[in-house]
């Protein structure tokens, strides 16, 4: 039905493979192409000019023209004939081939410039095309020009001439600008070509003039560039509207019957547009050939394709063949793909084209030089839609498109045109006229008498382009532009992450000369959550020199050998200018459109800045520890560095914990697992539930069990000293040998934590906590363990890791420590004697002699001490050696010091002279001290009371008789007496001393002994009185008054205590 040629959808590469016949058949030789050929031919024939530049915006067909010209001069007769025939068909009077004296054909050198040095690339292209050996790498620009001169001279007899085509020449100029170089190479090249005896023509293709590429450079360099530009004759290559219409007609092809129907339906519409907008142009036929594109849209496509926002791969052909939403290609697929849809003969209207621009290009246009008028047009359309109809909006869109893109080409929306145009679209002239008047009344449209046409109402008086340019000029020389692009980029070492499971990254930053000194003190070992490397791009040659002098072999600094580009600097300065405008320009506060334009420009500038940085980062050469590296993929290079730096890092594939900052739930699971390791290390699954699977159990399998860190040996579950994973073995053995053994003193776990975090291990915080406890538990038999009291700073020896130790390991590893214990033969014999003594006093409860290690014996003695009663520890009624043992054991913090120095010293003997009997006696005395004290106190009680009186019946009688609570308690405790227990004695002492057994000391026992006689006396009296039964004291005094008085009188002269004792003795007599 309708087809769109895809030939020119993407740009042509002059050095690519091409089907010459198809290319020549498809090419459209419009007036600009013919005129350019004619100009080139006449210049070469009639003047000495041999170097040219063709300047035109993207998508104007410069590369296509270059390729055609190469075929027109080609040494291939067939290609040359086809091209010449095509030219003759279009322009019979053309003398281009004659002007260049084509007989055998010209040798064509095709070179597409890149972002590297143009001298080397062009020289090699010339040498290759002329059959010469390639140039040596690293020559000077002058040497490359000499090589080109020699090659051109040698080609004189073999060819009519040499045509050198420099496509994308702007990239070569960009390189010269970025490197702050002059254009001496291009000047020398022009001189060589003009003086060459071989006919040579050089044509470079540019998007903008020489001066634009030097805009950000100093005025001196700009003047120098201007001189060089004079050696190159510049020819503008910009197809006119008429030529663009021809191209559209060639690209959009309708089936004959469809074409006829469309032309018949819209012929009057085309005439209106051609009459009012075409004026003297003969474009009626071209507009008809472009149908079903609205003739207004067809006219504007050419100018639009040359706008700055259209230069990113958006040629005229690109638009026509685009698959974007609401594009012409999508329109054709929807409305011209079958007979039913074709019958309606839809038109790709100005309204549809406006929607296409809004949906696909709004953000780009807003940030371009057309941003101001585009935003004003959008604002006008919004206001038209508030009170208007679809017609009001359609008129506004049409006027906006013509205002934005037609003014420079003398296209104006007159009132008559609008009336006629919309009448052809089906609206009555009255409605259109009324709508226009209303739009003028609402100040959506405004009539400009100068052009006798309607335009959109421009609600902004601020020229943003001028404002930005002025601000840039004002700040460009004194501003720190590097700080504006200091948005640090983080790049993950992806390949290393996939291999090792550990996330590491590098930061990439720009740096200027003044900031280089600040990185001098960068630590060579990264902290948790820090990049392991910093990549620095110098902003200038001075910064590069400062970096190379300062950095040397710093383990965390990589720097680029290439400095930043001038384009980056320009973008950064423009960004500063835009931010300054937004912050300081008060007029923007009241100008919504201008403010929106500035914001749009700022967003686009940020994207361009990011893109420019990406390009610099990806193309830079890097220096690390004195060696240079090339990297097309920066992440791969960073992974290589990570593999080398962390060469001993174990592979841990667990995203939950293998990170420096685990989540809250992960931390909770880590804590539970570490606690289980400390408390249940000898149990299968560490005591975790068998029938459920909490998070900590998952960590157990993935971080411990799978590495063999917790395994079964001889029917016991242990944390083995060696495991099957080689890297984990290396980690643990390195730690034991290089950290713990080397220290010969307690090593804080924070030191081991730091050792593991640093290269070559680089373990993350989450896994370090788990494996640190595993490491500690694998050395239970040969390490001593310490806990520091934060309040007092006192370091206390503990027998083995417990829950508190585990908590500190996770949260404050600087407060827990380990120390390796090493012994020789003499010490072994000594330890055996201590083990024998311990087994003797503990009844071999722990069988210390079966496994004699310093740590186990020290633990045994400390455990023995911990089981002694408070009375035994506190009493002064102890042998001198016993007292000393208690003191040194209480303060013991270093097992080595305690066992091999303190114990022999208190025994008053040398290490090899210690006797097991000595130690057995000492420990036995301590063990029995409490029991002996209880036996003595029991004797005191029985002696005071008389053993036969302590019966349950007597005690019960006293309990029931007395109202004294203390006496009741005393009687109760006496009643609990059994033959094989001293518990009742302990209870009596606690009652008398008012202290529980765990708090007894000498004072408590002394107090109990002092209290005992009085309470015994009360007990005896109460026991006798309990036997009186119904005889009360009042009755006795009344009925036996004479006897009572006689007894009382006989006791006169005795003190109270003697009276009581005498009476109690009498009671015993009458028992």
UniProtKB/TrEMBL annotation:
SUPFAM superfamilies per UniProt: P-loop containing nucleoside triphosphate hydrolases
Annotated Gene3D superfamilies: P-loop containing nucleotide triphosphate hydrolases
Source organism: Alteromonas genovensis
InterPro entries from the UniProt entry: AAA+_ATPase (IPR003593), AAA_22 (IPR049945), P-loop_NTPase (IPR027417)
This protein's name: AAA family ATPase
Pfam families per the UniProt record, alphabetical: AAA_22 (PF13401)
Domain AAA+ ATPase: 48-303
SMART domains: AAA
GO MF annotations in UniProt: ATP hydrolysis activity
